[in-house]
Structure prediction request, 650 residues.
Amino acid sequence: MATQIYQAIVDGILVGGVYALMAVGLTLIFGVLDIINIAQGILVVLGAYLSYSLSGRLGIGLFVGLLVTVPAMFVLGVAIQWAFIRPLRGRERTSMTLLVTYAMALIIEGVLYRIYGPDDKQLSASYVTSSVHVLGFYLPYIYLLGFALAVVLVVALYLMLYRTRFGRSVRATMQDQTAARLIGIDTSRVAGFTFGIGVGVTAVGGMMYGATSGGFSPNSGYDLISRLLAIIILGGLGSIAGALVASVFMLTVVSLVDIWSPTWANAVFYAALVLVLVIRPTGFLGRQAVRAQ
Amino acid sequence: MTSEARRARLAAGARWSALAILAAAALLFPVVFPNPVATNYGIFALIFVTAASAWNVFSGFSGYISLGQAVFFGSGAYAVGIAARDWHVTGTAVFGLLPLAAAVGAAIAVPFGLVALRVRRHTFIVITIAVFFIFQLMAFNFSFTGGSSGLAAPFLAWPAATYNNPFYYIALACAVGIITLAWLIRRARFGLHLRAIRDDEDRARGLGVRAMRVKLAAFTLSGTVTGLIGGVWFLYLTQVEPQSGFDPLFDLSIVLMAFLGGLGTVAGPVLGALIIEPGQLYLTIRFTNGYYGEILLGAIFLVVVLFVPRGIIPTGGEWIRWLRTRGRSALPSAVPATEAKPEARDPARSGPHGGAG
Prediction:
């Protein structure tokens, strides 16, 4: 039992790293554009299908394929933002952008159904099924590689945000749009790039999700987006550190509940969200914490 | 009598006669089109008129966008199904269970609202989505809900030719009930409080609006009516599964209907539902594989949000006003037209004449 629990915690942390990557994209988009991208879930699934096509049709390895899928998803994100998010202004913008991204999700889901059909697919490679035995834990290679990649990317995002000029303008936009514009930041360019980056990282998340979730279909987007939303709300909307903490925390909880009852693991996920928000409506690290950075 | 007053009386008369014609058309629809295929369209349209109006009474008036209405819809359906099964209710007596569906809707709305209404904007929307998924998971995993195979309604031994008619009139009664309620609320202090919350909740509280109480009352009313119509829907379809009772597309559809017609107006959600639901139904019958309908729904959504963002009723009302005044500002010329325009364009401030409710 004890080893089972330790194993569950290790699993939770490894999977949490992958979720952190997807959640950081979502929370970054929220922070800069003040919108919730409901399409993030289906974009992750789209990323998984892109990897599936590249590895299945062209025989390109999963990790090498990312060199193609990440830029492709980045461009897609910039295009979506330019065509559908940018024109929305005014009082109802919050709800409008939510509906627009929901509509995007529906369209992408429909297109994926049309192309790939409703059956479950899975990404396969030699390192997906094999695992390494360390200190009594079974660590699947794919999780280790994915976790490492997630850490590298999150660190890269962090460095970009805190060590570059562009990152400074992103953070300025997150704090105050108007003030950022007043000091000469091209906020619409920042918004476009941020949306692109947020969608681009879903390509990595999608590949990992496709390899580790034990089967995905166009329908998987709903489950994913509700998990990601729970994570970023729990972490505090717009807080990058919060998204990291909440991903690892939530996935560890899920992994632990999973030992006892796999069917209720998901319900615990949402119940934890509701519970935390009853106690602390701004989440773990709410907006105030972001402002203070 | 001034010409101004006469015109106002004429307009009121025209509105009432139009309403009377609409009511007569709705009442006579199954008589004129007795074909079950036609009444089927009518029933689904009315179910969604009710659901979209119920959504609008809370979300449209208060500005809190709920994406969890399917929680009430599905719970109403399951309440009727479980009660009929466990209490061995058969035949037409099942219609006596419909108040139970409404009561379950209300009983869920109160705790749901107490938790969710503490937060605003994005967080509120996400909480409603989360609660929705909790309910769908419960429907899948509890034993008393029948799991993934769902529940079936008791068999009604009615002739096929007129089977739909009672359902049509029940759905019509629900629709008329919620539309009347919405109309009354919009004119009452309650509706004013809700719209004050939508415009600026903190200021409304400062002016003495008991925001939580008002929001919770509207949310509960909305949940009650949605639960009731969920029960009707279940008895009509005679079955419910977790995916159909707790359907994310249901939430999205009613929001789209309200947005298309005009958020926060009384007639908007009705018009939106009458346009979208028959269209959606036609598509699902025409293309048995659902994805074309899905892509189309998404595409319509994008077009509506980008080109008619405030909905048909407010935009149409604006055009009519423009035609009537031939582009001249309706306001006295003391106010420069350029300054008056944003005022007239803002739906929130168009006051008593806004929304053509």
Summary: Chain B touches chain A through 44 residues (CB under 8 Å).
